[in-house]
Input
Amino acid sequence: MAERETVGGEAQRAEDAPAVVDPDARLRAVVEIAQAMAAAQSPLEAVRAAAGRARGALGAAMSAVSVWDRESGRLRVLVNHGDLAPGEEPLPEDESYPVADFPEIVSFLDAQRRLPRAWVQTADDGEAGPPAGVPPRGAAFSRQRAATLRRRGRSSCLVAPIVLHGRAWGELYLARGLGSPVFTAGDTDFATLVAAQISAGLAQTERLEDLRRLAFTDPLTGLANRRAVDGRLDAALEAHRREGMVVSLVVCDVNGLKRINDVHGHEVGDRLLERFASLLSLCGARLPGSIAARLGGDEFCLLAEGQSADEVVRVAEELCTRALELGEGEGVACGVASTGDPIGPVTTADRLFRLADAAQYRAKAARAAEPVVAGRGRSPDAVVQLADSAERSGRGGRGRRPDRRRFRGALHSADPAQLIPAVLAVLDAGHTVDGQPVRVAHPADTAGRLAAVAETAARMLDAVAWWTSYVPPGSRRMRTVRYSVHRMTRGPAGAGAQAQRALNEAPDAVFDLRSYPLTERAVRGDAFALRTGSPGNDPAEEAVLVVGGYRGMVAAGGSNAAGGWLVELFADEATLPLAGVAPVLRALVAVALSGPASPPD
Output
């Protein structure tokens, strides 16, 4: 293979020299970068794919992507690609540089807030100052990059700042070897475009990471959710069958939550759930490797692997004692089932859940201040008998399947573990929810995708109605684009109220966002939930609910090239709680807006 001049004992291949620029090839490269980043499963995979394709499109010998670590004040290299110098690794564990040595990466933003321009640095720059196109910052910074180029046997580099969410995020760095032409002004234009595409890809990857996190996390308490428990429990029971490892499940219901919600409001009830979640996590820390989860509503669990049944019961006893000390609550009803106790063979997750639930049910019925443990009663054990009878009832052709575990297989759920995959399935290909068609005329357009999100979520939450709305670019007036009413509600009496309701619910109803601050913020990418009568509600936002006869709502929005968008779901007493749904709806709206942008018809 042909070689050229060596520097520092390293030979550089002639094939690293840049080829003649092909505009069509560069356009294809941008598309390939977008596709590769969209297919990536993590931010690291995304930037690695972008670095490789950017290197090829710009005829560089090597490329790198670095991120500004604000906590440490350093520019940390995530990936290196191509012909690397000594000390450079493809996926460096600890290659970073003081950001003070390269301050332009955090300060070089165009005064007009346009895309920050890429610039070129050559190995010959130094005492003479920055090259053309670089804002004046002082020759010392230019000398720093020039010295790095000379030390690594390179002739020039091209630096393109990456800006994410309006803030400096890091840089795309490309370099050419000695003897290769210096990067041109056309190269800087293209690198600026590539950096913008990397920024867009990172934003999309962040949304997918949020979805993955939400898929396994309860949004109110931050604990694991049912899906996370099911996955861990299946793996734990496999280890139990293979190695005899003890698997234990503690299931808890928070007592008195409905009374607290009715008397003091859902905010107080949510605060109690959050406090109990913290207590559950604290007690679970005494069982290394355990997972604390909220299963839905007032139901929680603790899954322990490899701990003795006695130790799990001691932790459950402490949990019951400390739960009585929570101010607003009335303690918890707690049931324990462990393969370390005489409960018979446990071959499925459903069997262990049914045993723990039967124990919890007996604890609740007896108002027990201590946990009830399956397999520790008189023979035959009443808890095991209860679980067995429930299981037989569930199998029988005419027997009704027990619904004590409402969170398992429920058709309607506010659990993100069920909401997220259901909505994504409809966006991807499906057009049914619970066997019923979701009517979306043009799912390829923005309004159609948002309607799919709204209709699917409304069916799963048993919402009263949904609206999707649109704000043209530069406007502060929002109009209703699509809506659906699942059942009627009764608003306040009077001709004025009825007229206002008719205006609100009319197709193409127009709202001045200056009168609705929460809605205006949501259109810019936020989300919120409201329940009528809660202290601190915005009067204008609550008035819309009261006039419509609604008891609550959740809204989330965002924008794409076509303008601003909003999805709103409305609740009555039959609707599942919406407070914890806001971040989930926000993430799903972001996914819907990431497709092709089109204004409403």
Q: What stands out?
A: The two ends are 59 Å apart (CA to CA). The longest helix spans residues 185-215. The mean pLDDT is 79.
